[in-house]
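Structure tokens please, single chain.
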Amino acid sequence: MFRIKARLPRKVLALGLPTAWGAAAVTYKLTCPLAQQESLGARIVTSAVFFAVGTGLVLHVRQALVRELRQVRKVAGAAQSALLRPLPGRIDGLNVAAAQLSADRSACVGGDLYEVIATEHGVRAVMGDVRGHGIAAMGTVAAILGSFREAVHDEPDLGRVLRRLDRALARHLRERARDEHPSSGLEPDTPVAEEFVTVLLLEIGRDGEITALNCGHPWPYLLSGREVEPLARADPLPPLGPFPLPTELAPLPCGSLLLGDSLVLYTDGVEDARDARGRFFSLQGALIDAVRQEPIAPEAILSTLFEALLRHTRGRQADDIALLVLRNDRTRVDCAALGARGTARPATHNPQPTNHL
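Here you go.
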């Protein structure tokens, strides 16, 4: 109630000032004797009065629009924080760091998504990229992340997790198409044919074994010592949305994440970033430079990559950018105890904070 009462004077002021200025200009034109004269001096004075009124109206409208834009940015930023919630610095023995930078500075939101969750099936991670960016992409990001956060606990197989994401995307696009065209009253067959989402699903077992399903997303880089190589070179599946998933979805074995190794997941906005001469950003080269430093903590990798990206593009990237780093810092466990219990959890040390740019 207090907020409503506090807003009333502001609304009255916003409507009253333009009305008062307009009324003053009309009154001057109709009642002032000077405004009725045809001399050059009278015309100059009349023009000055209307110019002052017009300038005041323009400045008032501009100020109101700036306030509205600031409010929209504030709300969009809060929504983005709720969707891409801060990740803990340590998840089941893996050190984690993530950051996202939107290309749409006016909205402060992007179409990239990521999440890491520890489950009884292992640590599961998703990295995705929704077509487009800004507020329009937020609904799709919410649909994918909401489905992932439930499916990773319910589904023992990574392929079934991917099917849940596919169904969630299709349902979201149908609902959006129905909301955008409510007059037809019909269920759309192909709601938004041009919409798609690239998705990378990873599962990291307790022994470090990595399995993946990739739908049109760049493969992450594996950092082992000073070696920087793509995690896999297999052709990915098509992105979610335009094409149905194949009948058989067998996760791809991708080796192991050994103690001290790191995975760097990213969206294509990273490698598509260009400098003033049109040259693409070399992510692998930047990672090679990053692993020369010791220790190569996830936060240090993120900081190095974002500094290199902003320096390369001079802060004017054309697409959203998201980075996620997972480092295996699990301590050694008693293999006999692990075999006996089956679900023994490795010991952890003090967590490190996650960086969010």
